[in-house]
Amino acid sequence: MRAYDRLKERFHRRSAIAGALALLQWDRAAMMPTGGAAARAEQTAELETLAHGLLADGAVESWLGEAEGEDLSAADRANLREMRRVWVHTAALPADLVAALARAGAACEMAWRGARAASDFAAVRPHLEKLLHLVRQEAAAKAAALSVSPYDGLLDSFEPGGRSAEIDAVFADLAAFLPGFLAEVLERQAARPAPLPLPGPFPVAAQRTLVRRVMTAMGFDFAHGRLDESAHPFCGGIPDDLRLTTRYAEDDAFFGLLSVVHETGHALYELGLPSVWRGQPAGEARGMSLHESQSLSMEMQAARGDACLSWLAAEMRAAFGGVGPAWGDANLAALARRVERGFIRVEADEVTYPAHVILRYRLERAMIAGDLDVADLPEAWNRGFHELLGVTPPDDARGCLQDIHWYDGAWGYFPTYTLGAMTAAQVFAAARAAVPGLDAALARGDFAPLLSWLRANVHAHGSLLETEDILTRATGGPLSATAFKAHLRARYLEEA
Amino acid sequence: MRAYDRLKERFHRRSAIAGALALLQWDRAAMMPTGGAAARAEQTAELETLAHGLLADGAVESWLGEAEGEDLSAADRANLREMRRVWVHTAALPADLVAALARAGAACEMAWRGARAASDFAAVRPHLEKLLHLVRQEAAAKAAALSVSPYDGLLDSFEPGGRSAEIDAVFADLAAFLPGFLAEVLERQAARPAPLPLPGPFPVAAQRTLVRRVMTAMGFDFAHGRLDESAHPFCGGIPDDLRLTTRYAEDDAFFGLLSVVHETGHALYELGLPSVWRGQPAGEARGMSLHESQSLSMEMQAARGDACLSWLAAEMRAAFGGVGPAWGDANLAALARRVERGFIRVEADEVTYPAHVILRYRLERAMIAGDLDVADLPEAWNRGFHELLGVTPPDDARGCLQDIHWYDGAWGYFPTYTLGAMTAAQVFAAARAAVPGLDAALARGDFAPLLSWLRANVHAHGSLLETEDILTRATGGPLSATAFKAHLRARYLEEA
Fold it and tell me: Could B38 and A240 be called an inter-chain contact, meaning their C-beta atoms sit closer than 8 Å?
């Protein structure tokens, strides 16, 4: 048996544990009663420890060395490259740190739920301090293994090859562009009549039916996944069994619908991964910025564009029995594309969204570097938010307590949201240029032309190619802010 | 660190994996889309393999030996006894057999779903043959480790210390008693006017509300569990997070309700296990016959008795808006206690139920012994069924394809249903004798007196005591068919 084949077997086993962990996480958010939390934390810590042990085992390192000398196809060589990448991230950490991170993350996340509900940062602060202490150990260990900075050690787990120096450059570009652009958009918006509010309520049963119709139109396969409800929408599970969630509010016709479109974008990426590579690193999604580009291609690029919106508007009128001027295409479009200086990231429009991300990126870098204490986070958040968006959150629930990420141990993740938005703009522009009739199809609710192009040019690569290769082949060049800025200008300053 | 403490740590880890497996199994039955089956089988096989590896590791055997010489409390000594028991069952099997059983069981169970729907035994036969081949290896390995027969090696996994020689004796007793008794009951039943059928439909939404009211009255804690739906009702999960399922039919007001009462009986046992022993063998439920005795104490002993039925009848009338003679207490009781020679075990009344079990027990023993081929199962089933109940199943869906157990790899499980029914009668008679006002409380829907007694006399022991000890302390003697026969006589021949 070749060393490479031994590795394949080992990574297959790791993938099975990762799949079980994904189910446990979905269940915790969507199904689990509160009394199950402590036992679930132990289950998760144990499976994380076992998954770690499968790779940290010294044999794996030897096999990696041996396999690099074996006669492999180009695809197997790409898989081997990804195996080493995963191995470096895994073996960098001692087993007790893996278990401690899992337990501290679970405890902090449970404390955060209560703290956020009560807007009581002090209630979660000791948990977050303990967790950050461990995350900094994780960062240091990955930094040493990858020869990068501690923050980049974390970032690289979510965004293979991602480096803060590059992010700094593109974020500086955006930070220079956005404030002036936002002022211009808000001025233009203010000069027009405000859109009519949609007369609700929008019954949850009708929303559930509507979003399933939309998912089906988008190409989602309910034999390979399901849609449930949780406090925060997400797409979890595994490519053969995707677990999407959303939440519905009876007074909001858009949030549930557009968040489902977003999560379905993630799901379609997973469904489109090369199935012959299931269980192997080469078959996995290629990092979080590309992942987010697929959800945002659907939610921001497609669904909020005029063509697709005209179809969605008709679906909404049918679902809610909507008649009258508030339900007209133009009014619905104005509502769906409203720009506002809000406090909540997950409800933010695409113009202000980068500011939410830039704030978090700055703060988490400072905390990982040891330049900002957890105790000072609320004040730093509010000051930074005011600096970027000109308003100050009225409380921590709408400030530094709003997102799960830090409290769950996901540090170094936030910048991928905005990298994803830029990638989505670049990818969608390429699709539109390459696929004749793309918009006409979307106006009919026909996603097949868009999905086919995304499958062939993004999904099917899995991790066989690296991010920049995928993007260059698909769009003609590496990531830049150009397409994103052009998209924002076209949509918010040039459309009727 | 004492060897015993090392063992506790190891068993804690095993328990975390077992909890994850329980969630995966619940999800497969209640949530998973069909496309997730293959990946789920791999996840399950991997976790089974890892759980096996934690105990099969040679260190555990040494620690067991060492710990037996350590100075331990009586409770720790009981825990150590159970550790050895679990270890014997686990270490008896080679790792590759564990993985092969998990994979073959998953494949056979998936094939069975289709085969049962189509009543096509041939479609599942090769899967069942492959699985039985592996189960016989499992039986032989356990037989060698326990110095018992192969069948008893399997039985012992579900029923600690259970031996077919003893089961043969009590089943012979029942088999001698039941045919004559059944004829007498049917004759008496036929001599009375048939109960009025309940006018349906019984909307599923109303059933869902009703069963949750009943679960709450019984003492179920929704902070530690949930109720969902699946093809076969079951109670899974872990004591802190129980996962119950049922199914509803709009034309049947009883099945969903009484199956929830049954599963809630299982759940209350798990909830009542000693929480200081969580994650340790001493804290686990004591075998399947005692488990089934707790579900049947609720479903057959309590809920189908006059006192509790009068309360349930009022709840049913309120839930379904039932008025008129069909909804009277006496008519509802006659419906709930109707005895019939039906084909389906899970729908069988308590008089004919043992015949269903005895048939399966005979057949599975013959198959494990190599005396009956899978190919000959349908014919042997139909012949045996006719012998025991005087009717012949019209097809295999209502014959040898009806139950999941064999197709899922659970061989040696069936006799515990009838051992459980006998145990329930004995336990309930003891509770009624010990608790003044038990029936009066049940007639008000107050389960607290019954539950308190069961908690103190059964649940709280976990596996700190062995089954016969628990039963003797609770009821004054070891298991016999006496109380069960007395119960059947009182209910079916003496009640008004």
Answer: yes
